[in-house]
Amino acid sequence: MRVLVTSSRNTFALDLIRKLGSVGHTVFAADTYDGAVGSHSRFLAGHLTTPSPRFETDAFIATISAYVEEHDIEVVIPTFEEVFYLAARAADLPPGVRLYAGSFGDLARLHDKASFQRLAQGAGVPIPETVVVTSPDELRTAIADFPRYFARAAFSRGGVGLLTNTGPLAGKVPVEDCVPTPEQPWLVQPFVDGPMVCTYSVVVDGTVQAHTTYRAAEQWAHSTAIAFVAVDSTDTLRYTQQLVAALDPGFTGQISFDFVDHGTEAAPDYKIIECNPRPTNGVILLEADDVAKAIQGELAEPVVAIPGTERQITLAVIADAFTEPLSHLPKTLHDLLHVRDVGAGWWDDAAMLWSPATIAHGAKISHGDRKEVLAALGDDIVWNGEPIEGMSETDAAALEAVHAGRV
């Protein structure tokens, strides 16, 4: 395959590039700034800097299309929320290129947490009681009904902007800063005790080809995972297939879910929290040949990450230790000695040397507010439910149906 991987700033995008390139595929990368780590992998045939899909959608699509034609690219694999802009404008991509993603309508249903809650209930997947609010007054009323609550915007990601009165993030976001609207609703749920469990899947024609279930052994500021350990996938694989079956027939793409396990190690009891209709770090726990075959739909049975497999983003683990050194240092020292880095064995160290450029990119977007860097890292490639420039009438109708609660 001749593949273009977009949003190459992400560690999991770099991992996907390495895996596809190492088994013989010709891989190109793209992002909105030149310093993206994945754009400097030795496994690339070339890389591209694009306009922002969020702020310059027409120019983004035109730049991607020209590059696809110039390099005879067969498949475009999105790795972040640029997937929504590409899906909404798929008809404007060059003939013959395949976008490795579901339809815009399916992606919107999965990404909007309110519509996803309805989808999960219809698919028979356990989900906590959920209240959708569309005003600050409704938000205050809803959180007053739960002794322990957890709330977030329907369009959000990365564990930032969470409103809760329980756990390490309690009180981090003031309720006054949360402004639900009909166009940007919030979800309020009871706080569910138990560790977060995440999944990543490759789906081809409605069938799961590859699947990982993992826990975040370490998190950056109690948010984004930076160390990962695979756990048993029996239940989450079944739930993932149930959710995929509720989508349009033939759904193809990468899809990830977050669960809370409030059972025991011997008897997990999962409740689903949200969906990211894109890859996450779970891909890191799979072998290169399995990932490549899964993307091409060549596996008769889904390949599953082996429980106990561990990986970490070593640079991030070290950096996080210094944010809370007394609590993090013992575990950090253990992990540095015993857990394999995501880049181990690739002989591709030059790529991760560009990591400071990603932080600088986020700092630039956040206008120097250090507290907002994490939220800003993807601000030029996210999608928050707005109509997309140049989208078709069919996709506009699908989006309106999501917002109106009809799907």
TrEMBL record:
Entry superkingdom: Bacteria
Organism encoding this protein: Microbacterium proteolyticum
Keywords linked to the UniProt accession: ATP-binding, Nucleotide-binding
Molecular functions (GO terms): ATP binding; metal ion binding
Listed InterPro entries: ATP-grasp (IPR011761)
Protein name (database record): ATP-grasp domain-containing protein
Residue ranges occupied by any ATP-grasp domain in the UniProt entry: 117-308
Ranges in a coiled coil: none
Family matches, as SUPFAM superfamilies: Glutathione synthetase ATP-binding domain-like (SSF56059)
